[in-house]
Amino acid sequence: MKSKAMLLVALVAVVCVLPAVAQSKPELKIDYRFNVTGPDAGNYFYFTGPTRYMDSGQSRYSGTDGKDSLGNPDATSHASKYHSTEIFNHYQYDIFGNTVIPAGLRGLFLFAVAPTNQAAIDGLSVTKLPDGSIQIRYIHRGTAYEIVTAKDGTLDMSKISIKQRVIGHTDNTIHTDFSSTGKVADANWNKIWDASIADGKQIGSTTSKTGKITISTPSPDAIFGYTGLLQFTFDGKILAITGTLTIVKR
After folding, report:
1. What is the pTM of this model?
2. Burial 96-107 (b: 16+ CB within 10 A, else e)
3. pLDDT at residue 70 in the model
4. Closest by CA position to 245, among listed 88, 137, 78, 22
5. Which of 22, 183, 243, 244 is the most buried (most CB within 10 A)?
6. At a CB cut-off of 8 Å and minimum separation 6, what does 78 contact?
């Protein structure tokens, strides 16, 4: 009789605990390292969320070299050997295709698993500004992106906004309004963010046209979003980003 009573107490305790466990909010964890000065086997982009197998593979595929082994790009796809590029789409969009993480931030993450020359192709630049904020600029597939953190290096995901503008073709041929040579290396960022420069101009012999300056934010129609901070640090060589984001319904 005593054993039955103890079992009943234990079952009640479990039932009481279960709702608390069920109510815990799902999270997306980010851990990123990228050397902006050149090739580095230590580059990595890790992420893990609440959906089984929808992560960068760290927990399932860690090799003897740890993080380094996951940072190397696949020779065929030029992305993570464990499909980080495509799997991260699960967290960038909701099930209806609405954007939850702006393309400019996703693109920054993927430099760590891209071919070693991708940062140079896209003209990636990272600058720590006098007030402590970190400014990140790059041009990918003809679109210029600029990310600027708060003075403490944080990026608030509930308020995230990324400036962008189409200035070139998808092969990164840039309109001469923004680059005197048509090359990314000679892009003039003052002109890129000059709203007085008209849009709608044909880029070379392509069908692409220049665009207006726009601010990229999560879609208001997305069924979920993120709250929390991403912490950026930059020592002149290594850009690091870490954070645990809470996934919230909208």
Report:
1. 0.82
2. eebbbbbbbbbb
3. 43
4. 88
5. 243
6. 114, 115, 118
